[in-house]
Amino acid sequence: MAGLWLGLGFTAGKSIAITLWSAITAPFRGQTGGATAYKHVAITFARSFFGTASIEQIQLSLSENLRGALLLSPWIDFGTDHESFRTNADKDAISAESLGRWAEALFGDTKMDKYTNPTDAPTGWWKLLPVEKIFIGVGGDEVLLDSIVSLAHKMKTEHPDVLVSRVPREFHVEPITDFGLGLSPGVQYQAMAAWLNQTFSQ
Length: 202
What we know:
With 202 residues, the protein is of the alpha/beta class. The protein is built from six helices and five strands. The protein has helices spanning 41-47, 83-87, 96-107, 145-158, 174-180, 187-200; strands at 2-11, 15-23, 66-72, 131-139, 162-167. Keywords: Hydrolase. This is Alpha/beta hydrolase fold-3 domain-containing protein. GO terms for molecular function: hydrolase activity.
């Protein structure tokens, strides 16, 4: 794996834009959605404002909470034994096999903990998240569906403003794929746009 680049952009202390870019090399060349291996890193950065992570973290001092955080098809659990891996195996753009290779390339022998695997976070961990609103988008045809829904449920019990947008018959990060191919915006894309407009136009 080569060229992981992380960029943070700040706007008047209100938001952080995390840009993830990766130069995909073998064994990932030619596979759909290679950059998805880094999506869960956004959660790690958000939580790294507090405590000590097992991977290098960025410490930020905030005078106020971030206005919002958008998580689209977040890869936040490295297990592949969820039921959705079986039911959506032939529907999604990614597979258990590709996720396994990405996990190995990204973490290797790194010990998994609540930062690298947020679904293992203890009760109360999300209460300290310095974000006012959270959007979690997931497609009904994703192999990651079960783990994302599980995390969303846990976050909703601890955070006052979490919107979960579950769209039937959409695959992993479909809004991004559609946009890249120049296709008309789908249901999830429109839901994301509406949430972003409402959250950041205030």
